[in-house]
């Protein structure tokens, strides 16, 4: 999935166990793979890679890649702001929220490391990601793939606030 649903679910999971930040981090990390099992539309990362070697190339070589990276950075900032508005009440919840978001985003950062270095343990995590991931590649279903992520995000938030009450 894209960054926002991962951030929301990671932050929610970590905030459910606010006194166990390590556990919250691990749960948030695992939540990434659980979310990716649900069919969704993901970023097409091919423009970041060399076609032959499938390793990351400089984004300055293609304007499409640079634009996409800017979009992803904006999404990340938006996700951070959204999560802070939803989950943060004080310093502690700010730290927990951040821990949850980092945990939830880590598997995608591992993908970047895999495509950069092709070394363990990132080969392992990439295989896991590829095996579990359920990206809808057909462009016909792009809106369905996005709607699912909006729905899941709202659903998780509703459940979160019911449990938290
Ligand atoms: Zn993923």
Structural topology:
Blueprint: H1 3-16, H2 21-37, H3 63-87, H4 91-117, H5 122-132, H6 142-164
Helix pairs in contact: 1-2, 1-3, 1-4, 1-6, 2-4, 3-4, 4-5
This protein binds zinc ion.
* Secondary structure category: mainly alpha
Rg is 16 Å
Distance between the termini: 28 Å
Average pLDDT works out at 92
Tally of distinct domains:
1
Residue share in helix: over 70%
- Characterize the overall form: globular
Polypeptide structure, described:
- Helix content is 71%, strand content 0%.
- The protein has 6 helices and no strands.
- α1 packs antiparallel against α2 and α4 crosses α5.
- Zinc ion binds next to α2 and α4.
List keywords for this structure.
single chain; 165 residues; mainly alpha; 6 helices; globular; binds zinc ion
Short description:
The chain has 165 residues and is mainly alpha-helical.
């Amino acid at each position: 999935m894209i960054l926002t649903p991962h951030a929301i679910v990671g932050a929610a999971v970590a905030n459910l166990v606010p006194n166990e930040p390590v556990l919250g981090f691990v749960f948030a990390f695992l939540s990434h793979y659980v979310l990716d099992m649900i069919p969704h539309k993901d970023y097409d990362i091919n423009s970041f890679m060399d076609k032959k070697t499938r390793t990351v190339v400089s984004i300055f070589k293609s304007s499409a890649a640079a634009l996409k990276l800017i979009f992803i950075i904006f999404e990340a900032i938006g996700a951070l702001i959204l999560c802070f508005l939803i989950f943060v009440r004080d310093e502690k919840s700010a730290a927990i929220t951040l821990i949850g978001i980092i945990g939830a985003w880590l598997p995608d950062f591992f993908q970047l490391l895999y495509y950069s270095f092709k070394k363990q343990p990132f080969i392992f995590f990439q295989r896991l990601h590829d095996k579990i991931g359920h990206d809808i590649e057909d462009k016909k279903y792009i809106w369905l793939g996005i709607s699912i992520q909006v729905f899941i995000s709202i659903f998780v938030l509703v459940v979160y606030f019911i449990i938290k009450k």
